[in-house]
Amino acid sequence: MFLQRIGNKGIRLGTLFDRAAARHPGNMVVLDHDLDVAPELGRRLALPEVAELVAELASRLWAAGVRTGEKIVVHKTDGFDISLMACAAARIGAVPVLLSPKLDGETVVELVRRAQQPYLFTDEAKLTDSLPAEVFEVAKKVLLASGTFEGATPLASYAGTARVDPITMPPDHPTLITHTSGTTGTPKLAVHTGHTFQARYRPQATVVSAVRSREPIAIHVSFVHSRMFTAMPIAILQGHPLIILKDDEPESVAKLFSQVPPGLIEAHPNTFLRWEVLAKDPRGPLSNVKYFSSTFDAIHPRTVHTLLGASRRKLPLFAQAYGQSEVGPIAARTYSRKRGAEADGRCVGSPFHGMTNVRVVSRDGRPPTKSSPGFIEVRSDGRIVTYLGEHQRWEKQVNDGWWRMGDVGYRTKWGCLHLLDREVDEIPGVESTLEIEDKLFARIEDLIEVIIIPGPDGRPVPVVSTRDDKPLDERVWKDAVVGLPPMADPVRWKLEDLPQTATTKIKRLELARLLAAGSDGNGELS
Questions:
Q1: Which ranges carry the AMP-dependent synthetase/ligase domain (predicted)?
Q2: Paired residues of 449 in beta bridges
Q3: Is 13 exposed, middle or buried (0-12, 13-18, 19+ CB in 10 A)?
């Protein structure tokens, strides 16, 4: 779209920290963990230190044989050095392929194979615990972030090598490859260019520009997700100290936020759900937050209300963007204390003027409505250019420049987009499983997850997780489902046992398969 194209020279990940350090040399990156590639740097790093580390890692990659245009798969134990390694690879013109630490070994081998003999950056723990020996056959060379393993080379062995100057690639050249969520099967590899990433940067930067200069921005986002590579540049280039979280455990988060109070937090919806308990923490870890932001999945009204209530700032806002890994943010809206997320049902907002567009295509010849939703299709210059090794799958989702999201919904006369369900998650006789889940969250305080999936007999089955794994009160449940479509009795699972993607989305199809196979996730039938 035209506002995404003006002056778009590409994201330039390889020199990102150099440029940020030149503008704001005194700013810091605060971590809740040590970096495997440089534990000696600690957890408080000045931007020039991070820039130096990226340059050093890039030089080590070059010394290891990685060259411009080659791919390097990054699949290691979770940590911010995953994102830094992506920047280091981009600095020498290589193409990083980021695979979540949560992926199983067989899936990783398949995706490495799809990358056609790339370099592999991993660690001893992954090679010992999850990656099969076959990974050495499909990778050109295996480099280690930490530890030792026969047949693999520690990247640290190239420390102190001659410094390599950064290489700037054309904006239309692949700059990063991420994978899709894999909620419907083996993840696809999404190819981003410098141009498409910069196009995504612009609508998201409008939110951060409202945050007061120098206020810290906290990010708890999968280190392999495309969102990290827009959220991180926006924060450091606009002059904000950066708080990077690997762990979303409430106690550790409360301690860190009490020491370094953020003005804006970007996180996954399920993370915000877990942080509801911080609203009652006497240390007030959320008290300084002016903006909460989430772009990954539907956010539940109860969570929005709780978090906004925890802020002591005047008129705090919760910004939710609707988008997808393949296209970036498409539409957005904000919630306030006065106008909460329950005000407009499943509304996910309006497109970014001059940057993105949305249409809803009828499935039955009638105008799409709540009772007869249509296919959601979008336009954005942030759209990926292909799926690596699967271009035909990419083409199937493109219709005259419009990208089919795989979701169903409708638009109101005011232009607001309402998201009802994923196409594959629809249940006959149920207008919106997401709407039911919202209502259950609002009515049952102890719920920390609820997923409505089709049971073996076709009836909707609520799979629930409770805070501290408490038993579900039968009377509370019966009161909560009054007025909702008929459903089977709830099945209780521990949250950690639910199949999840890298961004903590629940794999609904996988959950339905497990339920049909008789698994109860070590939970109980209510």
A1: 17-384
A2: 465
A3: buried
Phi/psi at 76 (nearest 5 deg)?
-140, 175
Strand partners, 110: none
Question: Using 50, 70 and 90 to split pLDDT, how confident is the model at 214?
Answer: confident
Could you tell me the strand order of the sheet in which 524-525 lies?
A: 447-454, 460-466, 491-492, 524-525
Residue 304, classed as helix, strand or coil, is helix
Please choose, from the candidates 74, 79, 77, the residue with its C-alpha nearest in 3D space to the C-alpha of residue 33. 79
Residue 496 has which token pair? Answer: 């950690």
Euclidean distance between CA atoms 369 and 249, whole angstroms: 40
| Mean pLDDT for the stretch of residues 378-404 | 94
345 CB neighbour count, 10 Å cutoff:
17
Q: What is the 3-state secondary structure (H, E, C) of 51-80?
A: HHHHHHHHHHHHHCCCCCCCEEEECCCCCC
| 3-state SS class at 100 | coil
User: Can you read off the two tokens belonging to residue 477?
Assistant: 């449940």
Using an 8 Å Cβ cutoff, are 269 and 242 in contact? no
The residue among 253, 213, 190 whose CA lies nearest residue 389 is: 190
Query: Which phi and psi (to 5°) does residue 435 adopt?
Result: -65, -40
Tens of pLDDT, residue by residue over 148-169, are 999 999 999 999 999 999 999 9
179 in helix, strand or coil? Answer: strand
Torsional sign, CA 205, 386, 299, 484: positive
Q: Measured between alpha carbons, how far is 387 from 79 in angstroms, rounded to an integer?
A: 26
Distance CA 450, CA 462 (A): 6
CA distance 247 to 32: 7
Task: Determine how many CB atoms are found less than 10 A away from the CB of residue 64.
Answer: 18
Tokens of 70: 């080659």
Q: Which of 163, 173, 179, 168 is nearest to 112 (CA)?
A: 179
Q: What is the pLDDT of residue 296?
A: 65
Query: Is the C-alpha dihedral spanning 495, 496, 500, 505 positive or negative?
Result: positive
For strand 242-244 and strand 141-144, is the pairing parallel, antiparallel, or unpaired? unpaired
Tokens standing for 455?
Answer: 């049971």
Angstrom distance (rounded) from CA 106 to CA 484: 41
d(CA 89, CA 121) in angstroms, rounded, equals 11
CB within 8 Å of 339: residues ≥ 6 apart: none
Res 523: pLDDT: 43
Beta pairing, strands 386-387 & 374-380: unpaired
Q: What pLDDT is attached to residue 521?
A: 57
| Tally: H helices and E strands in the chain | 16, 26
What is the rounded CA–CA span in Å between residue 416 and residue 413? 8
